[in-house]
Amino acid sequence: MTRYDYAGRTALITGAAGGIGSATALAFAAAGAKVVLADIAESGAQLAQSIVDQGGKAWFVRTDVTRVEQIESLLTHTLSYGGSLDFAFNNAGIEEENARLGESDEALFDRMMAINVKGVWACMRAELQVMKAQGHGVIINTASVAGLVGAPRHAIYGASKHAVIGLTKSAAAEYGKAGIRINAVCPGVIRTAMYQRMLDQGLADEQGIRRLHPIGRIGEVGEIAGAVLWMCSEQAAFMTGHSMTIDGGMTAI
After folding, report:
1. Cβ 219 vs Cβ 194: under 8 Å
2. What is the block-wise mean pLDDT of the chain (253 residues), using blocks of 10 residues?
């Protein structure tokens, strides 16, 4: 992975206990950033401690992104720990769907929208207030290839990720002149614990999934983390309102 120097900068990552979130947290820490990890899972505390044990600076704040008051508390803690908010990776999300839209579940719809859409909206709203006062900042939101194309048997998830892209573009247009860049990352199928659970439950076939990617394999979490760090760098200073697709060619066909 390309080396970046983010010493003295603070990165906030939601969904930090998951595969993409933890890989990105480790990458920011390796680049010298102070890292604030947010997740509903307590395993995020172990990741923070691991970063500290390796000489980095990290803190864990247990956060339910569907609760606005918890997000406000998270931002307060972030500023207390890091002194600023330079980068925010709004990565918390769920994918628990495997049904055609006509048979889909109302409770799952509400849960998916609360985490994947309201969570991103609420995090961005709080982060933007801090970054506007600072006069700078970068926000990256996790969308998906399902936010770019149709997603059979995953219509609710796809709708939630289309919404994330809409929030990203609108906020980028609103806050560009405030010195804030806002982009989204759209992964294809990535090898994570969530993906493994789908395999274990018989909801996915690895050979079939591989064939969906012209590159011939599943993506790795480090490949998404590398993209996020680049999008936060000065090399991407002219990029805002963009949805970067990292999908092994899935959406090319």
Report:
1. no
2. 90 97 98 98 97 98 98 98 98 92 96 98 98 98 97 96 98 98 97 81 79 93 98 98 97 94
β partners of residue 84: none
Q: What pLDDT shows up at residue 166?
A: 98
CA dist 131 and 111 (Å) reads 29
194: closest CA among 160, 219, 162, 158? 219
CB contact set of 61 (below 8 Å; sequence gap of 6+): 36, 37, 38, 73, 74, 77, 78
pTM for the full model?
0.96
- Which two structure tokens, joined as six digits, stand for 194? 């969530």
Q: CA-CA distance, 195 to 136, in Å (whole number)? A: 35
- State the Cα–Cα distance between residues 160 and 110, nearest whole angstrom: 11
Task: Yes or no: say if 127 and 85 are a contact pair by the CB < 8 Å rule.
Answer: yes
Cα→Cα distances 43→71, 96, 111, 222, Å: 19, 20, 22, 19
Neighbours of 126 (CB within 10 A): 21
For the record, the structure tokens of 113 come out as 């929208």
- Stated as kind and residue range, the H or E segment containing 198 is helix 193-200
Length of the chain: 253
Catalytic residues: 157
